Amino acid sequence: MKQSVAITVNGTQREDLVEPRMLLVHYLREVAELTGTHIGCDTSQCGACTVLVDGKAVKSCSVFAVQADGIGVTTIEGLAEGTSLHPVQQAFWDEHGLQCGFCTPGFIMATAALLAGNPSPTDDEIRKGLEGNLCRCTGYANIMRAVRSAANAMQGTGGVRSTATLASQRTAVVGG
Q1: Most buried among 38, 108, 121, 132, by the most CB within 10 A?
Q2: How far apart are CA 71 and CA 124, in angstroms?
Q3: What are 5-26's pLDDT values in tens digits?
């Protein structure tokens, strides 16, 4: 028996009937027709399906659509403002933070959540913030550059501090 859900997707209120067992990722792709959220593993291991649920990065293959009733969901399609890419999207483009592109939407959404909570993360904090997302093409160096670039752009300053930079600054200040 289908259940009614009211979900705000990318700022637009939707009301739909869904099967209670429908995963949020399938709701977004099949009902909302937003295919930017990718289905990678269906076991919450790869992070390709990461979306923002009330601002928090969530793997949408691990949530039922009925659990999102009354909640706001942002997908990769909703991150941009009109025709302007979000700074995270632009940074991934500029820094080639992708190879095949399959994992990219999940990494971008996880990065957006990371930078919303920590606008100036260290390299270690970036790695920790993105640890639930996998890139099978091994594009991690460019992904790290993209996250640093996005943080810088969002702050309009030097933004992200690398662990090496912090160590050299600490040595210069402490004299050790």
Answers
A1: 108
A2: 31
A3: 999 999 999 999 999 999 999 9
